[in-house]
Amino acid sequence: MIIKLSCLTSPCTRVLAGVIVPDTQLITSGLAFARSDSIDYTYNHIIRSFLFSFTIADKFTATQSRDREAQPPYSKILSSDKRFEVDGANAAREFLTRKGQDDQWNKHRLQLVWHAIALHTIRSIVFHEEPEVQTYAYGIWADLQGPARVPGGLLS
Question: How many domains does the chain fold into?
C-alpha cells in the first residue's frame, strides 16, 4: 500500500508498507527496474531489505543527514559469472548512470550505492563504510536473519 504524504519535506515522501521513503521519480523508476525481470523471491527480498534499511536508518543516530536516495531499490540478479552482490551493484550503477540526473549522481553517490549492494554480505568491511552502506546491510540482514540480527533493538 502506498500513501502519498505532503510535499512539504524535501524530497517529497510517501509511505510504502508503513515505511516513509522518498517519493522521487528515481525511486519509482528504481522499484520498477528491480521488478522488471526479477523473480518474485528476489524482488520481494529487494523490497523488504529496502524498507528495513529505511526503518533502521530512521532510528540510527549516525544517519541524521544521510542520502536517502542512495539507499537503493535499484538492484537485480543478472549473470552466472559474478557474485550476485556485484551483479546487483553493477546493475544499480548502470541504472543510476542512465536514469539519474548527471548533476545529482556524481562519482561518490554512485560508489555509495555500489558499496551498499556489493558489500552487504562482507561484515569485516561493510561496517567501516558510510552510514547509508551500514544501514542497507542491516536491512538485508533483517530480511534474511530476522530483526534480532540488527543491534540496539532498532527493529522489533
Answer: 1
Q: Report the DSSP beta bridge partners of residue 15.
A: 3, 20
Q: What is the mean pLDDT of the chain?
A: 85
**Is residue 99 included in any domain, yes or no?**
yes
Domain membership of residue 19 (yes or no) is no
- Whether 52 is in a domain gets the answer yes
What pTM does this model have? 0.77
Helix (H, G, I), strand (E, B) or coil at 65: coil
pLDDT tens readout for residues 53-85:
988 888 875 555 778 777 767 666 667 788 888
Higher pLDDT, 45 or 8: 45
State whether residue 78 is helix, strand or coil: coil
Which grid cell sits at 55? 526503518
Q: Among 13, 12, 15, 77, which Cα is nearest to 51's?
A: 15
Cell for 120?
A: 552487504
**Is 14 a domain residue?**
no
Query: Can you give the residue range of the structural domain that contains 107?
Result: 24-153
Q: Which helix (H) or strand (E) holds 14?
A: strand 13-16
Question: Cell 568491511 sits at which residue?
Answer: 125
Backbone angles phi, psi at 64, to 5 degrees: -60, -35
